[in-house]
Write a sequence for this structure.
Protein backbone atom coordinates (compact mmCIF):
# COMPACT_ATOMS: atom_id res chain seq x y z
CA UNK A 1 0.00 0.00 0.00
CA UNK A 2 1.28 3.44 -0.85
CA UNK A 3 0.68 6.33 1.54
CA UNK A 4 1.21 10.06 1.36
CA UNK A 5 3.95 11.43 3.65
CA UNK A 6 4.33 15.23 3.24
CA UNK A 7 7.96 15.97 4.12
CA UNK A 8 7.29 19.50 5.45
CA UNK A 9 5.23 18.09 8.36
CA UNK A 10 6.24 16.65 11.73
CA UNK A 11 4.65 13.45 13.01
CA UNK A 12 3.82 11.60 16.23
CA UNK A 13 4.20 7.92 17.03
CA UNK A 14 0.39 7.85 17.47
CA UNK A 15 -0.20 8.87 13.81
CA UNK A 16 -0.99 12.58 14.08
CA UNK A 17 0.65 15.09 11.75
CA UNK A 18 1.66 18.60 12.78
CA UNK A 19 2.11 21.65 10.55
CA UNK A 20 3.85 24.29 12.63
CA UNK A 21 3.94 28.03 11.89
CA UNK A 22 5.38 30.18 14.67
CA UNK A 23 3.44 29.02 17.74
CA UNK A 24 0.39 27.72 15.88
CA UNK A 25 0.17 23.99 15.12
CA UNK A 26 -2.40 22.58 12.70
CA UNK A 27 -3.08 18.93 13.50
CA UNK A 28 -4.77 15.98 11.82
CA UNK A 29 -4.33 12.24 11.43
CA UNK A 30 -2.04 10.78 8.80
CA UNK A 31 -2.93 9.09 5.54
CA UNK A 32 -1.85 5.78 7.10
CA UNK A 33 -4.08 6.34 10.16
CA UNK A 34 -7.19 7.19 8.12
CA UNK A 35 -6.55 4.13 5.96
CA UNK A 36 -6.29 1.88 9.05
CA UNK A 37 -9.55 3.27 10.45
CA UNK A 38 -11.51 2.88 7.21
CA UNK A 39 -14.52 5.03 6.29
CA UNK A 40 -14.80 7.79 8.87
CA UNK A 41 -18.39 8.52 9.90
CA UNK A 42 -18.02 10.92 12.85
CA UNK A 43 -15.36 13.23 14.31
CA UNK A 44 -15.67 14.69 17.79
CA UNK A 45 -13.41 17.69 18.38
CA UNK A 46 -12.61 19.67 21.55
CA UNK A 47 -14.08 23.04 22.50
CA UNK A 48 -12.23 26.18 21.42
CA UNK A 49 -10.40 27.68 24.38
CA UNK A 50 -9.69 24.32 25.99
CA UNK A 51 -6.10 23.97 27.23
CA UNK A 52 -4.76 20.44 26.95
CA UNK A 53 -1.48 18.73 27.79
CA UNK A 54 0.60 16.85 25.24
CA UNK A 55 -0.67 13.27 24.67
CA UNK A 56 -4.05 13.98 26.29
CA UNK A 57 -7.20 13.07 24.39
CA UNK A 58 -8.36 15.89 22.12
CA UNK A 59 -11.17 14.08 20.34
CA UNK A 60 -12.50 10.91 18.80
CA UNK A 61 -12.56 9.65 15.26
CA UNK A 62 -15.25 7.06 14.56
CA UNK A 63 -15.18 4.83 11.53
CA UNK A 64 -17.27 1.90 10.40
CA UNK A 65 -14.55 -0.38 11.87
CA UNK A 66 -13.34 1.32 15.07
CA UNK A 67 -13.12 4.39 17.26
CA UNK A 68 -9.73 6.11 17.42
CA UNK A 69 -8.47 8.90 19.64
CA UNK A 70 -7.05 12.17 18.45
CA UNK A 71 -4.15 12.85 20.82
CA UNK A 72 -2.59 16.24 21.44
CA UNK A 73 0.86 16.25 19.76
CA UNK A 74 1.85 19.35 21.76
CA UNK A 75 0.55 21.10 24.88
CA UNK A 76 -1.50 24.22 24.29
CA UNK A 77 -4.83 25.93 23.75
CA UNK A 78 -7.35 24.88 21.10
CA UNK A 79 -7.83 28.02 18.99
CA UNK A 80 -9.74 26.55 16.05
CA UNK A 81 -11.47 23.33 15.05
CA UNK A 82 -12.39 22.18 11.55
CA UNK A 83 -16.15 22.83 11.54
CA UNK A 84 -16.52 21.12 8.15
CA UNK A 85 -15.90 17.72 9.74
CA UNK A 86 -19.22 17.84 11.62
CA UNK A 87 -21.11 17.58 8.32
CA UNK A 88 -18.38 15.92 6.23
CA UNK A 89 -16.26 13.57 8.36
CA UNK A 90 -15.21 11.74 5.19
CA UNK A 91 -12.88 14.68 4.40
CA UNK A 92 -10.43 12.97 6.76
CA UNK A 93 -10.36 10.01 4.34
CA UNK A 94 -10.30 11.97 1.10
CA UNK A 95 -7.94 14.78 2.16
CA UNK A 96 -6.17 13.96 5.47
CA UNK A 97 -3.53 16.67 5.08
CA UNK A 98 -5.62 19.51 3.66
CA UNK A 99 -9.42 19.64 4.02
CA UNK A 100 -9.41 16.95 6.72
CA UNK A 101 -7.28 18.82 9.30
CA UNK A 102 -8.81 18.68 12.77
CA UNK A 103 -7.55 21.27 15.25
CA UNK A 104 -5.28 24.29 15.58
CA UNK A 105 -3.29 24.70 18.78
CA UNK A 106 -1.51 27.72 20.19
CA UNK A 107 1.40 25.82 21.67
CA UNK A 108 2.51 26.53 25.21
CA UNK A 109 5.78 24.58 25.34
CA UNK A 110 8.01 25.03 22.27
CA UNK A 111 10.50 22.46 23.62
CA UNK A 112 7.98 19.69 22.90
CA UNK A 113 8.46 20.28 19.17
CA UNK A 114 11.78 18.44 19.44
CA UNK A 115 9.90 15.31 20.55
CA UNK A 116 7.96 15.09 17.26
CA UNK A 117 9.41 12.77 14.63
CA UNK A 118 10.57 13.47 11.08
CA UNK A 119 8.95 12.11 7.93
CA UNK A 120 11.77 9.52 7.64
CA UNK A 121 11.19 8.31 11.20
CA UNK A 122 7.45 8.16 10.61
CA UNK A 123 7.88 6.12 7.41
CA UNK A 124 9.98 3.62 9.42
CA UNK A 125 7.26 3.44 12.08
CA UNK A 126 4.56 2.68 9.48
CA UNK A 127 6.79 0.08 7.85
CA UNK A 128 7.33 -1.67 11.21
CA UNK A 129 3.59 -1.63 12.00
CA UNK A 130 2.68 -3.13 8.63
CA UNK A 131 4.78 -6.25 9.22
Amino acid sequence: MSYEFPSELKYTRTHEWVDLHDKIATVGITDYAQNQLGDIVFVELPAIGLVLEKESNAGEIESVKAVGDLLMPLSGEIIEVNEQLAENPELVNSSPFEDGWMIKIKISNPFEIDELISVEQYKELVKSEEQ
In short: Residues 119-130 form the longest helix (12 residues).
